[in-house]
Design brief:
Elements lengths: L4 E4 L3 H11 L9 H20 L8 E5 L8 H14 L4 E5 L11 E2 L6 H4 L1 H10 L3 E3 L3 H11 L4 E5 L11 E7 L21 H4 L2 E5 L7 E12 L5 E3 L5 E6 L4 H10 L3 E7 L19 E4 H4 L10 E10 L1 H14 L3
Parallel strand pairs: 1-12, 2-6, 2-7, 3-5, 3-6, 7-8, 8-9, 11-12, 11-13, 13-14
Antiparallel strand pairs: 4-5, 9-10, 9-14
Helix pairs in contact: 3-5
Length: about 325
């Protein structure tokens, strides 16, 4: 199979850092003094913010990670919403709304809210779950807004693990099963926001893929692509060739998914996470589909291209994770 035409529009500094984080660990040594400084500041910030926590009017469950980059939080949150609803709860989601351009925060996302206004992850979560999604950098204000403007009786916080001003009843940490914790150093020598020991203090940890780091694991998969303009669906099984375009935190996992379906990728184009796509980012060649993630797709709804598709994925957790989570809910909500 010939090599695809590959274009990485990722800043060179980011590429270099990811190389030393996950491959050439010895190159991180000169950055260790900066990592020690980062860890010290983070620990001081955590202690300071915890002192100023205010009780939440609604139980809060945080779903986050201790490393930067994509780990699979979004599909896990969608899964947790389904579990909560099946158990009779009325969940709402709060999210930072990264790169959202709204002039008013907190913002309640609705069907007419553009991804560019509220942020791509918030728009995706709103589309997939149908529950209230409130975005804003101040998580405490987001919680108050959810309490005042929705009927939610439990909140899922999309990330915010290190936002210690926000009180929380339960913490779930997601780990990338393939990349793990990298070289296990804090930023900038490594990919970690907090030390590896943070996994021991969270309530529940789960890896996206098999990993010795956590007791529980999940896998994120999908076999259906959906056309952005027409809504038509197609199975990956019958697809032989495609172009791939994406702007997510860990594009290799997405690339591997398509290759596992024996799809020949004629071209691979990657952009930084949360990339603001423009129409010219896509090239239609000989009627071959261009496939992206669902997070990419929410920012491409108005493009005049007929052959843009996105892969629909879901998180599938091991049964023991679901059981432990549902059992914990009884204590979180004092049932």
């Amino acid at each position: 199979m010939p090599s695809p035409n590959t274009k990485h529009h990722i800043p060179r500094l980011q590429q270099w850092l990811e190389t030393i984080w996950y491959e050439q660990h010895w190159k991180a040594m000169p950055l260790l003094p900066l990592s020690a400084l980062f860890c010290g500041i983070s620990a001081w910030r955590k202690r300071s913010q915890i002192k100023h926590q205010r009780p939440s009017p609604i139980p809060v469950i945080v779903i986050g990670n201790i490393s930067i980059g994509g780990t699979g939080k979004t599909p896990l949150i969608i899964h947790l919403v389904s579990l909560l609803q099946a158990a009779g709860y009325r969940p709402a989601i709060i999210s930072r709304g990264y790169k959202g351009t709204s002039s008013v925060w907190p913002l309640l996302v609705n069907v007419d809210t553009l991804a560019q206004v509220c942020g791509d992850e918030a728009k995706l979560l709103s589309n997939r779950t149908g529950v209230p999604v409130i975005v804003g950098a101040n998580r405490v204000e987001d919680i108050q807004y959810a309490h005042s403007h929705t009927d939610a009786n439990i909140i899922l916080s999309d990330d915010g693990l290190q936002h210690y001003k926000m009180a929380r009843e339960y913490e779930i940490v997601v780990v990338d099963g393939k990349r793990g914790l990298g070289n296990r150093y804090c930023l900038p020598a490594g990919p970690l926001r907090e030390s590896p020991s943070r996994l021991e203090s969270c309530d529940l940890a789960i890896s996206n893929g098999q990993s010795e780091l956590t007791q529980h694991h999940m896998h994120v998969s999908g076999n259906i692509i959906r056309n952005i303009r027409s809504g038509k669906t197609q199975s990956l099984t019958g697809l032989s060739q495609a172009h791939l375009v994406t702007g997510i935190g860990n594009p290799q996992r997405f690339i591997d998914t398509l290759r596992e379906h024996h799809i020949e990728l004629l071209s691979i184009t990657t952009f930084p996470d949360h990339h603001d796509f423009i129409s010219n980012d896509f090239s239609q060649q000989n009627g071959i589909p261009t496939i992206m993630t669902e997070k990419d797709a929410v920012k491409c709804q108005d493009f005049e291209h007929d052959n843009l598709w996105y892969l629909e994925v879901d998180a599938y957790c091991n049964e023991s994770f679901d059981i432990e989570f549902l059992e914990a809910l009884k204590h979180i909500t004092h049932e």
